[in-house]
Write a structure and sequence with these properties.
It is a single chain. With 313 residues, the protein is an alpha+beta fold. The protein has 2 domains: 154 residues, Trna Endonuclease, Chain: A, domain 1 (3-Layer(aba) Sandwich); 143 residues, Yope Regulator, Chain: A. Helices cover 38% and strands 29% of the residues. It contains 9 helices and 12 strands. Helix 6 crosses helix 9 and helix 8 runs antiparallel to helix 9. The chain is globular, with a radius of gyration of 21 Å.
Amino acid sequence: MSLGKLNKVDIRNYWKDEARDFTPWMAKPENLQLLADTLDIDIELEETEVNVGSFKADILAHETHGRKIIIENQLDKTNHDHLGKIITYASGTEASIVIWICKSVTEEHRKAVEWLNDISEEGIDFFALEIELWKIDESSPAPKFNIVCSPNEWAQSVKDSTRTSHSETQLIRQEFWSGLREYMTNNKTSIKPRKPHVEHWYDFAIGRSGFHLSLTINTQRNTLGCELYLEGEKAKEAFQLLLKDKEAIEREIGTGLDWRELPTRRDCRILIVTEGDIRQKKHWNDYFEWCHNQTELFYKAFSNRVKELILEN
């Protein structure tokens, strides 16, 4: 069997202009997802060409739980002008994650981004990536992101340990989420699990801003939960539209769900809860199986429905 030849394509042959060509391409959901998978973070678009003083940031986005993300694009090698821009945009938008995408990263700018990560406060992360296009024989070009510089997780964990003393509950939650991530990775899953943390929730992107899937742990009630979380000014309208399809959704998931509109707040939840005490590690495999199965069922039931919602308000 013969194999194809891998050929690198000049990105300028595909994208002539950063603002008119590359930024609109980068802002498409499937391309933000490619970037999110590369960095192992969730990225949801807010807007492009965002005013920051007298400048315009290429892309403003956010993580599932609201950390702001600035993406600055450059179809050439890095320069001092764009280095200054990412710092300006980060401060002007109070972004927690800054992603600099370019054709090539010079050594001096790699060191500059490393220095920014070293001196930045906890929760402020800088990334420098190179984008490439590759073809196999005469195929269409395929994009590939290469991480050149990212936060040093070991150094960050050292800084964190000097500032924060995590509780026993937080540490066992992080251990549980780490185990779940490994379980889902080893068992076929249509959803890519992200980096675990110490919080009581573990989120998954569902393909639309304002919506996400979330697994939850309640160590006071000894329960585990799986839910679709809706937030923002259109959450209640979306909730009512989904409620019209309640019977079909519950039939697909295989059980009744708890539909919570939360009238005094702007968020809504559609969830299922089961017993589960994560302090009993001997039961973790059973908990992992439940979490994995429910996440898959929720994703299949809600993903297309959420993407197809037509919201008017």
